[in-house]
Amino acid sequence: MHERSLPASPNWYCSRCSDVNILCGLFFSLHHNDTTSKFSVFSGELVGHKDLVSGFSFCQHAGQSHVCVSSHSDGSICFWDSHSKTLLSEHAAHQNPVSAVHWSPVDKNLVVSGDEKGIVVCHWYHTGDTASFFPEPRTIFCLTCSPHTWNVVAVGYKDGMIVLIDVSKKGEVMQRLRGHDDEIHSLVWSPVTGEDTLYNRPEDSEAANGESAGEERGCYLASGSKDQTVRIWSTSKGKAVMTLKLPYLKKRGSAVDPGVKERLWLNVHWPKGRRTQLVSSCFSGELVLWDLTRSGKQRWTLLGTSSDSQNHSRIVFNMSSVHLQDDRELLLSTSMDREIKCWDLASLDCCWTLPTLGGFVYSLTFSPVGAGCLALGVGDNMIRVWNTLTTQNQYDTRSFWQGIKSKVTALAWHPKKEGSLSFGTDDGKVGIYDVFSNKPPQISSSYHRKTVYTLAWGPPVPPMSFGAGGKSSYSLYSCAGEGVILQHDPSKLSGEASDIDKLIRDTNNIKHKLSPHTDLSWKPDGKVVAIGNEDGCIDVYQAPSLKLLCSIQQHHKIINTLRWHHDHSSPPELHCLLASGSSNAIVYMFCFCAETPPESPVVLTEPYRRLCGHTAKITSMAWSPHHEARLVTVSYDGTAQVWDVLQEEAVSNYRGHVGYLLCVDWSPVDPDVIWTGGKDFTVQEWRVSKQEFTKPPKGKKMAELREKKRTNPKQKKKNNKASGAGGAAAVRDEWGASYRRREDCDGTGAVLYGFVSVLPDTNLLKKKKPRSMLPISTSMDHRPKEELLQDCITLASVKHTSGETDSATEQVITLPSHFFPSGFKEGHVEAGHYDSVVYLRLWSGDVEGALQLATEKGELNDHLLSIAPMAGFKVWSQTVEAYVKQLCLQEQYLKAASHLLSINKLYEAIDLLHSHKLYREAIALAKARLPADEPILKELYSSWAAVLEKDGHFSAAAKCYLASGASFDAAKVIARKNDVSSLRAAASLARISGEVTLAQSLALRCAKDLAAAQNWVEAQEVLSSQESLLVSVSGFLVFHTFFSLSVSSGDVTVCSGKHPKTLHLTGEEAKAAANSLQAFVHYHRLYECWWSISARNQKIHNGLSVSAAGDEVNDRVMNGGISESGESVCPPTRRLEKLDLDASLLLSESHAACQAAQRSIREIQERLAAMVLQHSRAPGGLKEVQPHLIGSIFSANALLHLCVFSQMYPHPDVVECCLILLHFTKSSTSVSESLQQEAKDLLRKYGSKALPLHSCLLN
């Protein structure tokens, strides 16, 4: 149907959005190209997608290669017939957006897809069955089916994990391949089986064969990741066998920053005919061919090195290859630069390039100077200039994007200056490009507030036409969505642009408001300009004064487009033809043939010609430069119509687009060729003579779409969102002023596809009309039309006659003199419209009455409260109190308390919060407004503590009790938890607060629980913190605790000290166990005696360590028990008459020897480690001391072997017991001389300084 076309751009950031079938047809998400021809040929689109196309794949099997599958962000999977371009079936197996899809190269019926939540679904095309698996809870980025085994699928995840699953075993994980650190962008299998193709040396191959002998024959898998590496994996070994680091290539004189990972999409492709070669993308759009049998820099080769313009300029997303019948292999690549390139893998050169479009085509226009130079304004924030007449490259285009930050909505070539192209954007910017240079555009300093819809070059008008003769002969006029037309000076765009409305008002003496302008068109001779308005009126002005010549009152809707007939090679009477198109779908022709301009403006109400046939609004039109009175129009009905204007006949109708059309222009060189662009992201060239249809399709197509929209309300909300920079652009009168059309790019730059008309629900657009407070006056405005028109005549006659006009005016504008009668208000009261009555009373000045009524009916609000002071302080105070009650009924207690503060009722506000259990807020208010000793604070804390204690929040309740000064209650409530930590904290709290009795009780409870858990140290700490309990520490630990000992080989059992039993001793082991237990019992009694003496003399320190005291006394006793000054070692204490224990059980020489040997070995080990560290670099010095150390260790080990049972069953430290007994010599007469002598002998023999092993170290 069409000759050439620029198709829609492939999607970005998708792992598989292009594919090639065995018939050499390439689909890029939605469009199809024949790769066998010299130039690509666009052949069609798949229409019907409802959301973003996230994946695409062909069936690669003969007889079924025309079938393809696509995945979408709404979770659906669609099967298509690419020949008929129809939808075969649709499945909604996924509940989340689908991120990858692939048709199995082995099984012609198997399709595998994966979504963002990690769900993998297998679809069987011939039966329609599905099976779901969940191999990993990760986000799937890509997947690919094995070309050798039908049940093996490789899945790549966002976190860098690659998983091989077996779909025949319910998605069982076969291998987990770990190595990448970031997103897996692409996966591709080796085209051949086996893992011996990458070894270029014979010994490597033999080693590989030897390792894999007897193992399963595997296959290589290549992966590309965001971590800038390509890895080759061995599926039989489950690991990477090769890692390829992307080379940093210089581009445009600067090196790529390797740290910028987010600018990289690493796609890999393994050509079928090249088993040892791999193609990957690179940082800035380059394609690299890797030779996997080489190493170093010789491993990779850059594609397209013969010319700088061959490579992509931005990152590449997808690659596909096809093997032709002439043994050539072609590679197809898609990129962010919106170009599709075809590469010959033999020569590594680019065969052809196909530009694509990433947005709506808003404007297209041919240059009047450069023949065949077509400019396109596109919604992807770029301008394309296409040389349509070149023979070498049919798609010779250049892109311009500098200085453009939003959609390009309007274009206009300079009438005389070649290469000068003006543009307007969606954000209100106007600029001029020189397309033959690389300079950035000139931008006007005057911005429009809304979208620029029309640009036109014309003669300057005042004030720009005044001044020196060096002024430009053309000015640039821009019309935007706010209804303003600005005149820009192209030679000085930095200057201020002028609004032509001021000149129109001054010239024509207009006092009323001008209707917003929507379009303008200059007559080719520059003498007349036609301006279309929002109310459907067209005004024709004479330049340069802009005197109004004619006003056309034919259209009744917004004017979208105006065009004057060209003035070359046509009769003079046709030069005055003006074509107009509006939203009422009819094209009108008007003729202005007057030789002299009229003195007063002429009003035209009948058209010269009427062209009917379109079923929706007219968006653009163009006159044929080759014919007389031949016009082409485009419409929202999705068609382009060629007309014979004079005959009012339809010539040809083009229906090749999908969706509404936005722009059109006639070829300047071929009378039979027309170019059109629209919302389907395409520009299409077509011939008038080859069209099948003559007239537009009949019926209300838009009405059908609206009805379809109503019957299918399951449209996602995100499709109707109108975002700022990348979301939607306002369309003039697009089925309502509030409707905005869906734009082409999302926030990340990915192109949105799916040609489904997004129409608003008219039921949602209609807002409920607010109720009138003046129903009688409103009802008078709904009288018959004749009466309303008579009111207008009456009002005009009254206004323009002398006399009293107030009463007449009131009658005409339906505001009766009895505006505020009581009966009028009672009508609102009876209807329950109290708010209307309140406002009527306010307007009449009865503020107190309005507040009283609102108080009675519970209709008070913040607005009424703000005007209450107008009625006095008393009324205001009463209103506040009433509003507080109303807020309490509405459970808005904080707001109510705040209003009480406004009338200085602080205590009432606190009581309000207190009564509704808002204790925290009440305390905060009291502390902010009252002194710290205010009694109400103690009351608040006590009340809050009681509530917290009742709810089981004991810690918070304790804090409140403490804040209120009730320390006893705080300790009691903490102890209610009855655990060790709570009891300890409660005891400490009571001790600090001076509650001694309570502290002792809680400490004893805590110590008992700790002792029951055999935590002796912490129990001692708890009791030692209470000074009055120091005497009972040892007795508590020994006599109130149960001990138990079980020996496997003996018959020894020990029970509580409260219930002593006879110990039955059997053998040496049992005897050693009994002696150990009895020694520990006497050990505790020994300490009990010591503490009792210290407590009586009140000279004990709570933090004194037993071991520290023992060391000090040990040093002094070794010198005979006398200090250097001749004083006794032990301080003077009260004498203990009797020692209530058998001290001889503690003085066991065998245990003393064993303990001394253990201490010596520990000391030797420490010294040996220090010496090894010190003499690690001096082997000679280490050898000299080594024999002495070894002998000492042997002596200690021999001594330890003699006391086996002493090591098995512990015994109190004998040296420590000797020191304590010697300490008792000054306070107890029960320590015999023989016992003292035995203790001194043991100290001399087994003290640390008398040990033979220790003297060995000193020597």
Q: How do the strands of the widest beta sheet line up side by side?
A: 42-43-44-45-49
The total of beta strands comes to 59
- CATH architecture descriptor text of the domain at 5-197 and 218-247: 7 Propeller
Main sheet properties: 5 strands, mixed
Relative strand content:
15-25%
What is the SS-derived class?
Answer: alpha+beta
According to CATH, the fold-level topology of the domain at 5-197 and 218-247 is Methylamine Dehydrogenase, Chain H
Q: Overall mean pLDDT score?
A: 79
List the defining traits of the structure above:
single chain; 1259 residues; alpha+beta; Methylamine Dehydrogenase, Chain H; 5-stranded mixed β-sheet; 4-stranded antiparallel β-sheet; 30 helices; disordered C terminus
Outline the fold blueprint.
Blueprint: E1 5-6, E2 19-20, E3 25-28, E4 31-34, E5 42-45, E6 53-58, E7 67-72, E8 77-81, E9 86-91, E10 98-103, E11 110-115, E12 120-124, E13 130-133, E14 140-145, E15 152-157, E16 162-166, E17 172-177, E18 184-189, H1 202-211, E19 220-225, E20 229-234, E21 239-245, E22 268-269, E23 277-281, E24 287-291, E25 300-302, E26 316-323, E27 329-335, E28 339-344, E29 349-355, E30 361-366, E31 373-378, E32 382-387, E33 396-400, E34 408-413, E35 420-425, E36 430-434, E37 442-443, E38 452-458, E39 475-480, E40 485-488, E41 498-499, H2 500-508, E42 517-522, E43 528-533, E44 538-542, E45 547-552, E46 559-564, E47 577-582, E48 587-591, E49 602-604, E50 609-611, E51 618-623, E52 630-635, E53 640-644, E54 649-654, E55 661-666, E56 673-678, E57 683-687, H3 701-711, E58 728-730, E59 740-742, H4 762-765, H5 775-780, H6 785-799, H7 806-812, H8 822-831, H9 834-843, H10 847-857, H11 862-867, H12 873-889, H13 893-902, H14 906-915, H15 919-929, H16 935-951, H17 954-963, H18 967-974, H19 980-993, H20 996-1012, H21 1016-1024, ...
Parallel strand pairs: 45-49
Antiparallel strand pairs: 1-57, 2-3, 3-4, 4-5, 6-7, 7-8, 8-9, 10-11, 11-12, 12-13, 14-15, 15-16, 16-17, 18-19, 19-20, 20-21, 22-23, 23-24, 24-25, 26-27, 27-28, 28-29, 30-31, 31-32, 32-33, 34-35, 35-36, 36-37, 38-39, 39-40, 40-41, 42-43, 43-44, 44-45, 46-47, 47-48, 48-50, 51-52, 52-53, 53-54, ...
